[in-house]
Fold this sequence. Notes:
Distance between the termini: 25 Å
Bound molecules: guanosine-5'-diphosphate
Strand content: 15-25%
Number of strands: 13
Function: ATPase that binds to both the 70S ribosome and the 50S ribosomal subunit in a nucleotide-independent manner.
Order of helices and strands: EHEEHEEHEHHHEHEHHHEEHHEHHEE
Mean pLDDT: 89
Shape: flat
CATH superfamily of the largest domain: P-loop containing nucleotide triphosphate hydrolases
Helix content: 40-55%
InterPro entries: ATPase_YchF/OLA1, Beta-grasp_dom_sf, G_OBG, GTP-bd, P-loop_NTPase, TGS, TGS-like, TGS-like_dom_sf
Number of helices: 14
Pfam families: MMR_HSR1, YchF-GTPase_C
Keywords: ATP-binding, Magnesium, Metal-binding, Nucleotide-binding
Largest sheet: 7 strands, mixed
Protein name: Ribosome-binding ATPase YchF
Amino acid sequence: GFTCGIVGLPNVGKSTIFNALTKAGAASANYPFCTIDPNVGVVSVPDPRLNTIAAMINPQRIVPTTMEFVDIAGLVKGASQGEGLGNQFLSHIRAVDAIAHVVRCFEDENITHVSGGIDPARDMEIINTELILSDMQSLERRMERLTKMLKGPQAKEVTRELALVKRLHEHLNEGKMGFEFEVADDEQPMLAGFQLMTTKPLLYVCNVSEDDILDPDKNPFVQMVRKRAAQENAGVVILSGKIEAEISELGEEEAREFLQDIGLSESGLNALIREGYQLLGLITYFTAGEKEVRAWTVPRNTKAPQAAAVIHTDIERGFIRAEVTSFADAVTCGNVKKAAEQGKMRLEGKDYEVLDGDIIYFRFNV
Ligand code: GDP
């Protein structure tokens, strides 16, 4: 599965948001949820198309696709130098696919801010600096290792990698994030192998007060976050931890009414899940049988056999062809069967790249 780590300074609302996420998942019957460990929650990716397809078939089961969120505490100023929980958080962050950085944009006299007053620009700087410093340390260790290998049998590759490591180290040393670093296509695999934190897709989550949620851009703190995020090409999601916590206590129907009453079209957590999914470059395809209508997640540009492998590796191994109907055609024709009768079902081979919204039936040899 794909994992999004929630980071941020203490008292910005990380746990509140994480708990709301996991509780919201637990509350709605159709959305299976489980807790792997207190800090890891599996949440369903909300997708109205799933219910539309289900309504065509009336299956026994409807199964949404999921994403994992991890509450990563312990990131404080100086963490890369061993402050607070020190480097413990690093291994957690290294393991996630994307980072959601919660930034406090709400004022509340009763809740102290670790660095004094509210200042998102400073908070973003503190966290990013810790991530950058940690990445620099790991590059320095790599440099040492590579330098020792310079006279070895793979001198040519080692020299190339060392040059990249040094260039990247200089880039980070200027206070820039790894994802702002430009590499040639053939350097991309090397960079991925470094497993840095600042090369991961980053999303800023503004935690605003409930009074600001309808018109968040009036809040100067939100403007600050947007400005910095735009420079970095990072995503921004705005939510109110307090409101999300309230919503998470409600059932699906009640939650919808509550949102309507305050004038919101969807919960902030839905937006967070959706954006996280976007950020990771993920798409959804569907399988639709009488037993089960189900959504599956794959990275964009995944070929049909590899997309089938998320269901079962046997399908990838014995892959014959994919029978593909687009969601739009299924809706226009009424269902998948009628779409096939009207010539809208395509037979695709092993080089077909699965598209978002494809409804697929895989043929394979057992
Ligand atoms: P963490 O340390 O980042 O995990 O922060 P918590 O989620 O524990 O929140 C710290 C405090 O801020 C708690 O007392 C929360 O109830 C409070 N808090 C979280 N989100 C909001 C919010 O949107 N508005 C207000 N006023 N308080 C919040």
